[in-house]
Structure formats: C-alpha cells, structure tokens
Amino acid sequence: LLMLTAKSAEIDRILGLEIGADDYMTKPFSVRELQARVKALLRRAHTTKDLSQKDQAPRTIITYNCFTLDLDKRKILRNDKKLELTVKEFDLLSLFLQNPGRTYSRTDLLSLIWGYQYAGYEHTVNSHINRLRMKIEEDPGDPRFLKTVWGIGYRFAEETELAP
Fold first, then answer.
1. Whole-structure pTM over 0.90, yes or no?
2. E strand or H helix at 18, and its extent?
3. Would you say 69 and 120 are in contact if contact means Cβ atoms under 8 Å apart?
4. Contact at 8 Å (CB) between 156 and 97?
C-alpha cells in the first residue's frame, strides 16, 4: 500500500505508516519517483514472499496451543473463534505462530512484515504488537503469548511456557 497525499507533516507520515501503509509520498510528486517506488514495493513484496517461504515449512494449516492458522484462507482462530485482524497483524501473528520461541528484533519484523526497513520507524512495530496483544491476550498488560524480550524485540511463547 502506497499512500499518496498532500499531508506532509511528520505525524501524518508516521500515522500513515502505522496504520498499514508500506510507503508514503506527498504531493507534489514526480511520476518517475512514483514509478520507482511502485517497482521497489513490488520487488520487496517478492523478496518478502521468498524469505517467508524459506523460513516456513510448506504447511497450509498450523495448530499451536489454542490458535489455528489457515495460511491459504488468511484466517486465524483462537479457541475456535475467528480473530479480526488487519493485514499487518495477521502477518505478524502468523510469523510468530509458525516460529514459537524465536526472537525477532524490531528491525527483523520491519524487514519481514513491511518488506524493508523504515529508518526511525521501529515504534511502528511496537504499535502493531500492542494492538495485536489487545486482540489475542486475556490480559494485554501481562501477556501470556506475545512476549517482549527486553532490549531485543519480541517472541511467541513456546508450549512449555504455556503449560498451566
């Protein structure tokens, strides 16, 4: 998703990226720059797809604890209830569910989920993680599943940590 807008203030750019835009351009713009950015987004989409396919086993449905992930339908259930997630939230949760226990830095997540690194926009990851916790955790303030690894990033809890 490329946002093309007249709003050029830093807060507008940050908000646009945080709500899911992959890139942000302001008017006036050059058609050649727009074409170059679209090509770059398409390249990154292919690179991200290639990276995620290398990292993940070729499975369609993954069950982990109380979660069921259907990659083909892009659907996630928690305790047999469908979670309503944004595209980025789905991508984050699906990455974590397929790799429980693996720690990802914010930079890793920006690269894998957004397709490239947003210099200075690591807080975008924090915002998405916080919203995702609100949707999957019983107590988002004391998360059971989506753990913060202080000074590094985030990871999804392993089965042994989830036992009662």
1. no
2. helix 10-18
3. no
4. yes
Structure tokens at 147: 């753990």
In the three-class reduction of DSSP (H, G, I as helix; E, B as strand; rest coil), residue 153 is classed as strand
pLDDT, tens digit, for every residue of 136-148?
999 999 999 999 9
Residues, the chain: 164
Helix, strand, coil share of the chain (percent; to 5): 45, 20, 35
For tokens 């595209």, the residue is 87
Placement of tokens 């396919």 in the chain: 53
Please name the residues in contact with 28: beta carbons below 8 A apart, sequence gap of 6 or more: none
Q: Taking a C-beta distance cutoff of 8 angstroms, is the pair 153, 146 a contact?
A: no
Residue 148 CA to residue 132 CA, distance in Å, equals: 13
Q: What is the identity of the amino acid at 116?
A: Y
